[in-house]
Design goal:
Layout (H helix, E strand, L loop, with lengths): L1 E2 L2 E10 L23 H8 L7 E4 L3 H14 L5 E2 L16 H8 L2 H4 L12 H18 L4 E6 L1 H12 L3 H4 L9 E8 L6 E7 L3
Parallel strand pairs: 2-5, 3-4, 3-5
Antiparallel strand pairs: 1-2, 2-6, 6-7
Helix pairs in contact: 1-2, 5-6
Length: 204
């Protein structure tokens, strides 16, 4: 989409469907399947997504399965897999309960969660430039298009941090529920590096 010298690339971020049996636990790169047992919820979400768009998903099953189900409802081709959009790597925290990790990390988990790095993993602060780089690369590749990206809560929070220039800790304050849409528009001007952002909706 282009208007008056500006190119608007719309990002329609969708968090994957619910994963049963893992409430209160870090998933990260673990790969359990999505629960797609509620077709009405998928129908409702699919009806809100743009008819003509580039469809992307992460490599993890919960995102891929959600993307494939939504693509089927929308009658579009299978989404392309984008590894750079994958969830934060929680290392040794993966599969563990939040309470157990908080008990070990103490006040750091509350005072500076964005920079806290799990053993063998990455901090949210380290994830942010990965997502920002992917958003920039894909925005240039698909400039002026609508992009539907089925991803993860951490991925979407990192994209919000990029658009709003937020610190890691502040970005983690966003609630991103399953099967919700967060739309972020990247608006590029004619001058080099002239980028603006617009947020029509978050977690809807």
């Amino acid at each position: 989409m282009a208007a008056d010298g500006f190119t608007v690339t719309e990002w329609w971020w969708v968090r994957h469907a619910l994963v049963r049996g893992h409430d209160g636990h870090y998933l990260g790169r673990l790969d359990p399947p999505a629960d797609l047992a509620e077709p009405a919820a998928l129908d409702s979400l699919a009806a809100r997504l743009p008819a003509e768009a580039v469809w992307l998903t992460t490599p993890l099953a919960r995102a891929r399965q959600t993307a494939e189900a939504l693509a089927g409802h929308c009658g579009v081709a299978m989404p392309c897999v984008e590894p750079d959009l994958i969830e934060q790597d929680f290392g040794l925290w993966q599969g563990r309960g939040y309470d157990a990790v908080y008990a070990e990390t103490g006040e750091d988990a509350w005072r500076s969660p964005g920079t806290l790095r799990p053993d063998g993993g990455e901090s949210f602060a380290e994830m942010m430039p990965r997502i920002a780089g992917a958003v920039e690369r894909l925005s240039l590749l698909h400039a002026g298009r609508r992009i539907v990206a089925i991803a993860h809560a951490g991925t979407i929070r990192a994209a919000l941090a990029q658009a709003l220039d937020l610190s890691p800790d502040r970005a983690l304050g966003f609630q991103i529920d399953t099967l919700t849409v967060t739309r972020i528009d990247r608006i590029a001007g004619e001058r080099p590096g002239e980028i603006y952002w617009r947020l029509p909706c978050v977690n809807r």
